[in-house]
Amino acid sequence: MTTSVQQGFQLSPYWVDGLGVPSFDWKKYQDKIDIMPESLYNVLISDNAPALIESIIQNYSLSLVQGSDIARVARDVVLADVYIGDMPSEISKRLGIDQNTGREIANQIVSQIFTPAIEDIKKMQAAKFPNRVAQRQAIPTQQPTAPRPIPGADLPETGGNIIDLRNQK
């Protein structure tokens, strides 16, 4: 097997643990794949994923081993073994990098690999992590506030009900 083909397998979310990892449970893995929507399977086997991960390795000066860890995290999110909201910290922890870099890498994976199947990923995540998803939805988002009214702005040009107290004794 050529190095580039082998590297492609090492960076593929589908194949990352398939080559020479004796502790990997292929039956359990295949059982999960058999019940997942086709869009999620397509994310796992996509040629785009290894190419993006290779690009990430180059851009962040990471090792091939760290690239394999990125592929594992992507796979684990698709399989709903890792909560998608934990992806930045999971990447940071597994790769030994800072949180900001982990967040940047996670954002690239979500936007460039997960996008075609994001709705199915959300459904899998909601089924596996209902409390986490509900908790996230319960967090109020900051609503834009209405502009403050300018005093007298809604009054007619005739002065409306403004009383001029300057000339009173």
Please, could you describe this protein's structure?
The protein has 169 residues and is mainly alpha-helical. The protein has one domain. 58% of the residues lie in helices and 0% in strands. The chain has nine helices and no strands. Helix 6 packs across helix 7. It is elongated, with a radius of gyration of 26 Å. The N and C termini lie far apart (101 Å). Residues 139-144 have low confidence and may be disordered.
Topology:
Elements: H1 3-10, H2 26-35, H3 38-45, H4 48-59, H5 64-78, H6 87-95, H7 99-114, H8 118-128, H9 130-138
Helix pairs in contact: 4-5, 4-7, 5-6, 6-7, 8-9
- Low-confidence segments, given as residue ranges, are 139-144
Portion of residues within helices:
55-70%
Element pattern in H and E:
HHHHHHHHH
Average pLDDT, rounded to a whole number, is 83
How far the N terminus sits from the C terminus, by CA atoms, comes to 101 Å
| Overall number of structural domains | 1
Radius of gyration: 26 Å
Structural class: mainly alpha
Largest sheet: none
- DSSP helix count? 9
Q: Strand share of the residues?
A: under 5%
Query: Total number of β-strand segments?
Result: 0
Overall outline: elongated
